[in-house]
Amino acid sequence: MRALPRRGALAVAALLALCANVTPAQSATPRAPKADLAAMDLEQLMKLEVVVAASKRTQQTRDVPSFVSVISAEQIRQYGYRTLGDVLKTLAGFYVGNDRSSTSVGVRGFSRSSDPNSRVLVMVNGLRANDNLSGRAFIGEEFGVDIDLVERIEVIRGPSAAIYGSNAFFAVINVVTRRGASVNGAEVATSAASFGTFGGRTTYGMAFEKDVDVLVSATYSDSRGQDHYFKEYDSPATNNGMARDADAERFHKLLATVSKGGFSFQAQNSVRDKHVPTATVGTLFNDNRARNVDQLTQGSASYSRAFTHGSSVSARIQRSRWTSDGDYPYAPTLLPGRDESVGEAWGVEVDAGRAAGRHFFNVGVQYTDNLKLDRATYTREPYFSYQDERHQSTVWGLFAQDEVKLLQPLTLVAGIRYDEHTTFGSATSPRVGLIYVPGRATTVKLLAGRAYRAPNESELHGEGVVTKGNQHLRPERIETLELVAQRLIGGGVQVSAAGFRNRLSDLLSQHRDPSDNLLVFENADAIESKGVELRLTVNRGHGLTGLLNYAVQRTEDRATGVELTNSPRHMAKVLLHAPLRGQLSASLDAQYTSSKETRLGTLVPGYVVTNVSILAPRLWNRMDLSASIYNLLDAEYAVPSGAGRLQNVISQDGRSFRVKTTLHF
Q1: What is the pLDDT of residues 160-173, one digit of tens each?
Q2: For residue 74, what is the enclosing H or E element?
Q3: Concatenated DSSP letters for 103-164?
Q4: Secondary structure (3-state) at 654
């Protein structure tokens, strides 16, 4: 294990000294008071709506230098969301697709088909969940935390590399899990759904004396999957285009959290086994041996303490291991080819904040040691190795941010982060924002920033049969400018608008090298995206509540003016929730996405997907019952396919259902 660099050690010491002379407050972490959320109007809810991820401290959303969305546990239950991806695709500017292997997310007009989500940073309680091999973030069933264990989801749009470094490119998504006190006993949940899907969860949580809180949970799911028709394989030699019994999925997830005062510990393990029916990278069609097995194991211990006048200090040490194994059948009588990846890392971070007059300073240092960055590709019969790469790397970063009250209604936020990567060198990420709050009803934000994404192991060292690495890659860059305005009209109605311009440069794209005919990544593309996002929220504290959002955007190549593939021009979403009788309630969400271009130059038609859910909580004071129908109108729609597949588009699910019960003990 390599030692922490001397500069990093000095930075840690300086951070601890920053808070050495302040007086401890009585409570380490501010908590929202217990209240009946269903009876609160929008203005009351906004006062309780806080985020931590934007600046690594608790803030109300109006004070955050970003266009923010916060999704609560109650909304997750009401709308029957099954995954993190289900939540994201209801937000303005976000869209989601499934290539039958994993789920990818697009943000503000940018999503490369089958992208590993490496341009979005996903965290669990502030702990980075993106792997260290490809920077990918899971958002489907492969995400490591059961969605029913989520207290809230914080979505911070725009670059946040000034705080978090690489991958905080388009957005930061922080998933905050429930505490044991919210369970206050045990829960046993069971579910049955379309495509032969069954699942269960067992959770125990409790708050004990002396401020000890414990939560332990285990989830399991098994799905037979669907039979899929792909016209590209419609011939007698390939089962007339039908892939049968080749879409199964099963997973388990474990989560444990323990806290006492300012100390906390969390550990998680998730394993997902997914069969892939699309015959990726030339594998045999209709062969159910094609599969991916992904596993994540993480643990972290942290300490945080708040002081008078809002000052604070926190420290975390963490250890992570990611593995991904793929089986690729190329001959019916031989064992499938094998792809194995192993990533291991440990890291430490220290953050501190201190109020001084009109200023509030945030500083932090982070060190990550990537102990393993291993990739192997080989055939087993006969044995032949195409790739056996074993690497290590380190990253350390230092950030500082100042929030200063220029005038009573005007705040300036200015921050910068410096990162040092052993793979390519250094990166500097600044951001600046002006937040104008003339009264409790109006907020205006002018924001600018720059972020980067470091080249990953696949891009740097992707040696294979038809690919090769490029160790001279530079990080991708993005520069953004954004104007956000929010107005609480009254009567539980709020309107929000955000206009943005993103300029991306040095984007990594895979091209064929004419000298050897191998595919290689190069810093080749420059992209510009412009758009407007509108949001209308209605919540009067009783009766019908709802949200309407609309996004219009254009994302194009800066050299040619050609629009990007997999980039819709228009998106509109409607969410409605209404009480029916007693505690019974119903919810509806409808999502419109306009046409998108594929990599072959054809258009995928626009579509509308409508989902409905009914929730009956606390039946007999012990059981929650919910039922959901997804794609109620059975719309036929598809998303563009990525490279490595013969298919131009991948059809998405038709009408499906889920019924779930949760028993409380």
Answers
A1: 999 999 999 999 99
A2: helix 73-79
A3: EEEEETTB--TT---TTEEEEETTEE-S-TTT-----STTSSS-GGGEEEEEEEES--HHHH
A4: coil
